[in-house]
Inverse folding.
């Protein structure tokens, strides 16, 4: 099947399955805004704070077409979902393929597992949700979501870890399904009925949802009450979200290349915005300890971020095409990424920490050497000016200029 750019994949499926309500977006990433470009350039120039890594392990040609989703289960297995209309189960330690899960019509777009890793759920373009047994690779049952609702009703999935599945709908709703009976147990409206719920996530009894036009909210699974978050003037599609810090915070990744952090304990406004890409940010996942999170997108890079320090600490190159999703291992020591290049790549967070420490030590040694060898600063007349106070910072000069008077 032909591979599609991130900006056109959702549009193509929407038009094919739900009518042409969404106009086509450019197939090439839009130019970055000056603020995003400046933020990214600052990260690139800060060599003492960021390590550049390269993956040492990968599964080549894991699928015959691009891989759109990945999950790392408690059984230490990698589950991949591909545009080649299959999912696959892999041994995370050896990279050996265990099972191929066939029958994902039109391409598998999302895959999740329960808390034990014994049950796997996948959604596909043909509006079917399939429930799989991880040990045998057999299909336990299928929900024809399109037949039930007449619309795309299973684009993205998340699980409560036990017996309930949540899916996004093309009618501004999130739907809950019982994995035993395969029946719909609840439906919650989160946006107008013509809005596409593009990403969902769950922490205990709280479900987070985001739409194609950038709307954000959470739903209390017990009461059904909805809390809306401010969009901060952005209407970019939000392709990925995740909970952090014991469910108190949520990270939303959008096509504008930003990740916004919302602290649910404070208010409905973004507490901080990370400028992570110059193009689409297609995946964001938090480490199990809540200290770091990882992003990936159309720039083909996997990036590690420190949530407390609010900066990028490491990045991994190596994919030859846009990266659709990343997944942490259950203990948080490793991370895998999947891409349109049909590969699964593994990244070691511990190695990132080692590289980061080494780079910081080398930068400190270089500064110390320069300070020891540098001659005294000299003025225009050759006088030693090293003891003079430093020039005022640019911020001071800008503030002083506001008060300047020109006669």
């Amino acid at each position: 099947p032909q591979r599609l750019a991130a900006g056109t994949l959702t549009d193509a499926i929407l038009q094919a399955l739900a009518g042409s309500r969404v106009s086509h977006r450019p197939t090439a990433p839009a130019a970055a805004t000056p603020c995003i470009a400046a933020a990214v350039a600052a990260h690139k120039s800060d060599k003492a704070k960021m390590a550049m890594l390269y993956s040492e392990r990968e599964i080549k040609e894991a699928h015959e077409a691009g891989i759109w989703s990945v999950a790392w289960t408690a059984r230490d297995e990698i589950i991949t979902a591909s545009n080649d209309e299959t999912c696959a189960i892999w041994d995370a330690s050896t990279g050996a393929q265990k099972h191929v899960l066939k029958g994902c019509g039109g391409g598998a777009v999302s895959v999740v597992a329960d808390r034990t890793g014994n049950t796997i759920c996948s959604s596909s373009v043909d509006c079917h949700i399939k429930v799989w047994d991880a040990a045998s690779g057999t299909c336990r049952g299928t929900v024809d979501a399109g037949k039930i609702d007449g619309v795309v009703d299973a684009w993205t999935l998340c699980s409560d870890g036990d017996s309930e599945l949540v899916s996004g709908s093309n009618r501004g709703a999130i739907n809950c399904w019982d994995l035993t009976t395969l029946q719909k147990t609840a439906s919650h409206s989160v946006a107008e009925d013509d809005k596409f719920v593009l990403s969902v996530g769950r922490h205990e009894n709280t479900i987070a949802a985001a739409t194609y036009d950038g709307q954000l909210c959470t739903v209390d699974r017990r009461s059904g009450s909805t809390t809306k978050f401010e969009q901060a003037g952005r209407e970019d599609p939000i392709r990925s979200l995740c909970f952090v810090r014991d469910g108190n915070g949520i990270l939303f990744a959008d096509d504008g290349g930003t990740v916004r952090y919302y602290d649910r304990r404070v208010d409905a406004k973004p507490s901080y915005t990370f400028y992570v890409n110059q193009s689409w940010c297609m995946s964001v996942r938090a480490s199990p300890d809540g200290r770091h999170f990882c992003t990936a997108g159309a720039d083909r890079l996997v990036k590690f971020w420190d949530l407390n320090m609010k900066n990028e600490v490491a990045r991994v190159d190596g994919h030859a095409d846009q990266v659709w999703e990343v997944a942490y291992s259950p203990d948080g020591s490793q991370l895998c990424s999947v891409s349109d290049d049909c590969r699964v790549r593994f990244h070691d967070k511990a190695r990132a920490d080692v590289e980061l420490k080494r780079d910081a030590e080398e930068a400190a040694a270089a500064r110390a050497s320069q300070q020891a060898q540098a001659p005294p600063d000299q003025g225009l007349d050759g006088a030693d000016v090293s003891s003079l106070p430093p020039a005022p910072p640019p911020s001071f000069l800008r503030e002083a200029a506001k008060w300047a008077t020109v006669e």
